[in-house]
Every structure is written in C-alpha cells, then in structure tokens.
C-alpha cells in the first residue's frame, strides 16, 4: 500500500457540559484527526488527543509530531500491518499519541483493502472470546450527589450498568459520601471511582475503605505515577481492587503493576500505548496475567478514537471493567452519524463495515477547526 496524501486537522470541540477531574476541568476537547489516502483513493482516519496530565502532550506538540511523521511517511509503500511499527521507529522516538493516530489510519486502510472490519484484522484469526458487546461505562463527574443519582437513574433505565465516579476534586468527605450513596443506589452494577492521581495517602485509604464496605468494584489511579508501593499497600490494607491508568505508559508497566500487586486491572488507551496493534498486545498480556481491562478514551475524543478503541475491545473479547467511550460527552461529534451506545453497550453489529467504519463530516471539521493550529497537507 502506497500512502499518497496525509491531512492533519487540529480541532477544539466543546463539551456538552464541563467534566470536573482532579487537576483540571475540561470544557473543550483538544484533539487532532489524521486522514491518510492510498494509491487506490481509499481514505483512513486516526485520532490523537491532548493529555498534558497523562502523556505530557498538548495539541501543539501532537500536531508537530504527527506532522513530522506525515512528512516522512507520505510516498512510502507499506506491505503489511506488521511493518508499521518498524517504520515509525526509524523516524521518531516515543510520541505514542502521534503514532497511534497514524497506525489507526493505516489499519483502517488495510482493513478496507481486505474488506473486513478493523476488529477482524486485529484478531489475527483468533475467535471472539466472549460476548459481542462492550458495556458502556458512564462518568458521574459533577460532584453534585443528587444530580449524579438522578443522572444515573435515567441512564440505568436505558440499560447502563457500568459507572465511574470522579473523585479527588478537593473534598474527601464529599467523595466518600458520593461513593457510599451511589454504590447503594446502583447495587449489583459495576461501580468504580477514578482519582486521576489526585489523592493523598490518607484520602486514598478513606475512599478505598468506604468503597470496600459499599461494594465499589475498583478504584482507578489513586496516587501519582511512580507510587506503586503505596498502591500495593492500599490494596493490601483495604482489599480494594485498583486499576492503573496514568501509570501505564507501555507494556512493561503492565507486568510491573501486576507482579507487585499495585493493580488488579488496567485502563488501556490508544494514545498511551501507541496504536491498536500494541493495544491488543497489551490487552492480551493483561488477560494472561489475570488483570481485568477497562477500555478508555481520553476525555474527550471523537467517534474516530471511540470506534478504534471499540474495534480493539472486540478483538480482545474480555473487557470486565467496561468501555469509557468519551465522544458521548461532546456537544457535537465530528461524524454526522457517530458511534453511540444502544441499551448501554456497543455491539459488533455497529462496526461491521470494512475498516474503521466511520469518517468525519467535512463541514464539522471546518466548524471545530483549531484557531491556533492550521490544517496541514502532505502529498507524494
């Protein structure tokens, strides 16, 4: 396959309402879409989002590294999907977000050329492990307990059964109340809490103890990256299952957290791991080592990343801790017909078209174009 054209679209997409997290309140998604065209005129799409507190990348740095890769790869012939990573490593160290956008777009093209949905390409001939649906995990992130319970009740009536309470927003006592009350309201569901590295040792123990007594399924990334011993101690002292997110930057981190008992599950994101191929490899390593998986998109990404993550999830098959699909929190998606949950889940029937199965609407790309970073194009 010969890549003849690459186009980069830096975007600023408003959220439907602010998402309050430890360390930041997100009002706009800062993300970049990449369009690659092959010699047959097929187009593939990928996405990389700014995540300063997770990957250290801003929209500007992602635009620069994605542009650098595009300039190097246009005009290059790629014979098979397994060649992609080696080509990247010859021209750019690190920068997993930019590489993820390129790899997703290239895999979109390869799957289209084979006439199969992307998840079939990622499976490599393996059979699906379990059900052909990914349970949607919904964030409760306003900090207003009454409003969050009302929100959860409405979505529960639509079939949602996985939840994530955003904690570590500055008031530990309120977080403890929210964890207890929401767990009581949603008994029998998979309810988690996510601290985004924002808890002190004392606050981590308070929330974990409340969660263990209330039926919380897991606590995600309570402490800063590097505090593996503290996470292992928290699990040992409280019995609370922990999910590692920001502290998982490559596959070796999965083994380290599992071996030390610092985590009993992992949140996998394309922008951390470097693309769908490495994502599936990482997921299989988790399953082999008894670690549960949460599929996640950065808050917030569009349908392009959501679909790519879903395809990777279907290739894995076993996603016990749900799918955090963040395009749902945008005021509007770049795709005219976005990927959306049906009865609280996404099914393989929604992604059965060849390739990724989704492409953005040109008018929406113009509407949400970044005011700071221009569209760039490279041709062979």
Order of helices and strands: EEEHHHHEEHEHEHEHEHEHHEHEEHE
Number of helices: 13
Q: Give the CATH architecture of the largest domain.
A: Alpha-Beta Barrel
Overall pLDDT metric: 94
CATH superfamily of the largest domain: Enolase-like C-terminal domain
Structural class: alpha/beta
* The number of domains: 2
Q: Provide the helix percentage.
A: 25-40%
Low-confidence stretches: none
Rg (C-alpha, Å): 20 Å
CATH top level class name of the largest domain: Alpha Beta
Shape: globular
Note the gap between the termini.
Answer: 13 Å
Relative strand content: 15-25%
Q: Indicate the CATH topology of the largest domain.
A: TIM Barrel
> Main beta sheet, described?
8 strands, parallel
Q: What does the model show?
A:
This protein has two domains: 3-115 and 361-379, Enolase-like, domain 1; 121-351, TIM Barrel, CATH 3.20.20.120. 38% of the residues lie in helices and 22% in strands. It is built from 13 helices and 14 strands. Strands 5-6-7-8-9-10-11-12 form an eight-stranded parallel β-sheet. Strand 2 and strand 3 (43-49) form a beta hairpin. Helix 5 (145-156) runs parallel beside helix 6 (172-185).
The gist of it:
The protein is α/β, with parallel strands linked by helices and 380 residues long. The protein has helices at 59-73, 84-91, 96-114, 118-123, 145-156, 172-185, 201-214, 228-238, 251-260, 270-273, 276-288, 303-316, 362-367; strands at 3-21, 24-38, 43-49, 133-135, 137-140, 162-166, 190-194, 218-220, 242-244, 265-268, 292-296, 323-324, 345-347, 376-379. It has an eight-stranded parallel beta sheet with strand order 5-6-7-8-9-10-11-12. The protein has a four-stranded antiparallel beta sheet with strand order 3-2-1-14, with helices on both faces.
């Amino acid at each position: 396959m010969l890549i003849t054209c690459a186009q980069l679209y830096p975007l600023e997409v408003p959220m439907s309402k602010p998402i309050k997290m430890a360390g930041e309140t997100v009002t706009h998604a800062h993300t970049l879409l990449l369009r690659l065209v092959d010699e047959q005129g097929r187009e593939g799409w990928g996405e990389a989002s700014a995540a300063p507190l997770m990957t250290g990348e801003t929209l500007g740095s992602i635009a620069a590294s994605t542009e650098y890769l595009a300039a190097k790869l246009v005009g290059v012939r790629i014979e098979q999907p397994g060649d992609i990573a080696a080509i990247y490593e010859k021209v750019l160290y690190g920068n997993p977000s930019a590489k993820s956008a390129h790899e997703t777009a290239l895999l979109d093209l390869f799957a289209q050329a084979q006439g199969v949905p992307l998840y079939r390409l990622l499976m490599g001939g393996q059979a699906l492990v379990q059900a052909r649906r990914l349970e949607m995990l919904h964030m409760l992130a306003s900090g207003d307990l009454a409003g969050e319970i009302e929100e959860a009740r409405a979505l529960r009536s639509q079939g949602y059964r996985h939840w994530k309470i955003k904690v570590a927003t500055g008031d530990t006592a309120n977080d403890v109340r929210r964890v207890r009350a929401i767990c009581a309201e949603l008994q029998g569901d998979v309810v988690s809490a996510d601290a985004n590295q924002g808890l002190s040792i004392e606050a981590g123990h308070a929330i974990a103890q409340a969660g263990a007594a209330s039926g919380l399924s897991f606590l995600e990334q309570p402490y800063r990256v590097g505090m593996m011993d503290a996470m292992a101690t928290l699990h040992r002292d409280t019995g609370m299952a922990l999910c590692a997110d920001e502290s998982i930057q490559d596959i070796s981190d999965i083994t380290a957290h599992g071996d030390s008992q610092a985590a009993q599950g992992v949140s996998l994101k394309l922008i951390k791991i470097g693309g769908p191929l490495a994502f599936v490899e990482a997921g299989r390593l988790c399953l082999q080592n008894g670690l549960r998986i949460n599929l996640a998109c950065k808050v917030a990404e569009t349908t392009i990343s959501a679909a790519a993550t879903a395809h990777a999830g279907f290739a894995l098959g076993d996603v016990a801790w749900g799918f955090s699909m963040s395009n749902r929190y945008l005021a509007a998606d770049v795709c005219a017909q976005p990927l959306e949950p049906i009865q609280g889940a996404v099914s393989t029937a929604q992604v059965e078209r060849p390739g990724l199965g989704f492409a953005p609407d040109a008018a929406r790309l113009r509407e949400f174009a970044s005011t700071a970073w221009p569209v760039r194009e490279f041709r062979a």
